[in-house]
Amino acid sequence: MKPRERVALSRPVADEVRKTTCYMCACRCGINVHIKDGKIRYIEGNRDHPVNKGVLCAKGSAGIMQHYAPARLRAPLKRVGPRGSGQFQEISWEEALSTATQWLGAVRADDPKKLAFFTGRDQSQSLTGFWAQQFGTPNYAAHGGFCSVNMAAAGIMTIGGAFWEFGAPDWERTKLFVMFGVAEDHDSNPIKMGIAKLKKRGARFVSVNPIRTGYSAVADNWIGIRPGTDGLLILSVVHELLKARRIDVDYLVRYTNASWLVIDAPGTAEHGLFARDGEGRALIHETVTEQVVPFGSKGARAALSGRVRLDDGRFAVPSFQLLAEKYLDDKYAPEAIAAETGVSSQVIRGLAAEIARVAFEEEIFIEQPWTDMNGQRHQGYVGRPVSFHAMRGLSAHSNGFQTTRALHMLQVLIGAVDCPGGFRFEPPYPKPLSAHPTPHGKAEHFGSNTPLAGPHLGFPRGPEDLLIDEDGQPARIDKAFSWDAPIAAHGMMHMVVANAHAGDPYPIDVLFMYMANMAWNSSMNTAGTIRMLEDKDEATGEYRIPRIIYSDAYASEMVAYADLVLPDTTYLERHDCISLLDRPISEPDAVQDAIRWPVLEPDRDVRPFQTVLLDIGARLNLPGFSDGHGRALYKDYADYIVRHERRPGIGPLAGFRGSNGDREGRGAANRRQLQRYIENGSFFSAHIPMEAQFFKHANQAYQDFAVRMGFFDTPQPVTFQLYQEVLQKFRLSAEGLREPLAPETHRERILQAFDPLPDWYRPLGEALVDQREYPCHALTQRPAAMYHSWGSMNAWLRQIHTRNPLYVPGPICDELGLKDGDWAWVRSHHGSIKVEVARMEAVNASTLWTWNAIGKRAGAWALDKDSPEARKGFLLNHLIAELLPPREDGMRLSNSDPVTGQAAWYDLRVRIEKADSSLVSDPQFPPLAQPEAEPRPDELRYGQEWAQ
């Protein structure tokens, strides 16, 4: 439909409509911002935008109040009182930038690793990571380590991609959609639109989640699983499928390592690794000639079972045989796992049967000839119309990596990855593990005034790629890529403050953070973290973390603990780049990226953080930011977006490249590129030809398309890794058979968690506490109307949520005599909180839960110190320790997944006790002083004059 043919949905309210990209959550929807008299009057969805097609949620619509929030910072700040006092002095940008440059320059000249640079959900990680690499510190990461690294790492290592930003269900064709652990604000508009399509077509939607709210509330079937046991449920479904032989054998042979031979030589350094030829190619057993040949040999028919003797005399078996033997064990039978999961054997068996029925009895076939990477021509695409989606409910457990691998294995076994009706990849994924870098940050990678040799984050191929010194000590302050968390692909931001405070593995001089509220809802052990930020060295009287530089747009709790504050703009006042180098807005049928641009100029003395970072980089004379003579290479972030090249012809944006703006993916810089994006609604979209849309992992047309677009320089097909050799290498190190050897302190942990086939073990934090003393689980979910912490200072969204009760299952309420509005103590092994409760029936019987990040510290975010968010709101974070309980040897490790370092927020076990009535939640903290001199309004009104 052309714009002129559309019926106006409302009377014009603006002199001008400017199209940009929303930032009220991570969906990156297109929005139309209506401007009148220099003010925003209205925000609506852009109906031409490929992500949301005009749909907009409460958060997006309330962006107007985010922009005009009284909590906005207005100028650079220098701390003049104790940390946490809120005593600041406004300073000029020149003083702020000179101070930051002085502090950072001294660190870079002395010891770059003494800078810890970590960012929150900034969506510009290709820039911030590049800056940190050029600075030379090994200590960089973004928020993924405490959010969803299990999801990304498990997906990439198993199938070359993962859920959400890496792929999506085939909403148009799927007939059975199964969702695990997705909160209702996650990818909200696309999921809501997708579920609406399912409902319209009569497709079945099953939700597996301890809590029935949001998406789960409209599911056809809700499975109220016990937290942390999803992996066990998935493996029981696999057990049933294998027993019934309802798997896609042809798909497994063609596209997975199911046929690859695994060396069976216990006690040797190669046991459990793949047998390979002299060129490193994996070997299979060919059934016709009964010869061992390389995988992919033309005409070869690979065996999935049988023990064969290799030329060197060792024996080997196909990995699928190991898989089948493992999951056919009766310990995975529905009856055996029903009590642990809280799901009846009939429900488990019924779920497996429905998955099998839809996959194999409702098969889809699309007539579209295509050619695979072996040169074989196919007449069309075979589709298994079962799709899955999962997010933090699986990810935020210490067994989440293996659980997510199990879910991907289930998809692969039924042949439902990147086929019609199944889970579909979004460009630039899929990517094989070999296309990702290994992490850089060993001692030999950095030195004074020297960039790192490569990117900080990546995927180790084995223990040899760990960032440890000769004594096995971590090279990074967060201990990512050490024996503590060997495959911490997104870093471990949740451990930075605690480790820096302890000087373990070494002290730092400067903590530099962007939009990471570590003094409140982004930290475990929040009260303890506050003490760490305030703590001083007894001998010197100096702060244990000497200097903190922080950037944010709003007066969050973390601002009060900074020594230097660099005020950011709102998302409507700056350029942003939603890049294919970072986290694009692609869909399965199209390559897409987007921008934000200043639809309004700031009315305060603030600057976009990305532009500030470029300025500091030039002042520090960092390669790639300065010409070597102290002159900045880029005027600002907009200039960087247009002119920066990561490789020749490859820049942050894929659209409108080339001198004439007619190139896609690869091409020279185009000085009018941003203007072309703005004229196009602030996004770029390139359709994928139908011949290339499915089976991207093995589709010659797609691989050629990916090369043309610049994702790769040569085709990079993906073989799905059901059996993960990288994990087995770590187990061999833990067995003392492979160098470098795992330390004795970590061997049992690695042997338990690094099974090369997806596995389930009890969450670590849960296993280390007395479950009789702490019989309940406690979780948080983000509500549809909020996103992380920055929604609950929004005047409109606050009218939906001003405080968060603790929702308690009906049977527990009956047992304790609790009713709505009563108060209760909730206690963990780490701490206690006093909270208001509400009864709920649609929840797992042993699970307490609340909305995430509604509770605020008094005085923060420009809220009145007596606001409901501060008086009655609360955080579960006070109950969660950043370290696990001590082991028998006294050692305490991070409260994280032992494979990836993912923060294990959801492993929390508690008990609940009825308390006396109260007017406020506990704990309470002294109110934070506002950093600005002007008083805040008592009442914020929306109207013609923006009266306050």
From TrEMBL:
<dbReference type="Pfam" id="PF00384">
    <property type="entry name" value="Molybdopterin"/>
</dbReference>
<dbReference type="InterPro" id="IPR006963">
    <property type="entry name" value="Mopterin_OxRdtase_4Fe-4S_dom"/>
</dbReference>
<dbReference type="InterPro" id="IPR009010">
    <property type="entry name" value="Asp_de-COase-like_dom_sf"/>
</dbReference>
<dbReference type="Pfam" id="PF04879">
    <property type="entry name" value="Molybdop_Fe4S4"/>
</dbReference>
<keyword id="KW-0408">Iron</keyword>
<keyword id="KW-0560">Oxidoreductase</keyword>
<keyword id="KW-0004">4Fe-4S</keyword>
<feature type="region of interest" description="Disordered">
    <location>
        <begin position="430"/>
        <end position="455"/>
    </location>
</feature>
<keyword id="KW-0479">Metal-binding</keyword>
<protein>
    <submittedName>
        <fullName>Anaerobic selenocysteine-containing dehydrogenase</fullName>
    </submittedName>
</protein>
<feature type="compositionally biased region" description="Basic and acidic residues">
    <location>
        <begin position="933"/>
        <end position="942"/>
    </location>
</feature>
<feature type="region of interest" description="Disordered">
    <location>
        <begin position="918"/>
        <end position="948"/>
    </location>
</feature>
<keyword id="KW-0411">Iron-sulfur</keyword>
<dbReference type="InterPro" id="IPR006656">
    <property type="entry name" value="Mopterin_OxRdtase"/>
</dbReference>
<comment type="similarity">
    <text>Belongs to the prokaryotic molybdopterin-containing oxidoreductase family.</text>
</comment>
<feature type="domain" description="4Fe-4S Mo/W bis-MGD-type">
    <location>
        <begin position="15"/>
        <end position="71"/>
    </location>
</feature>
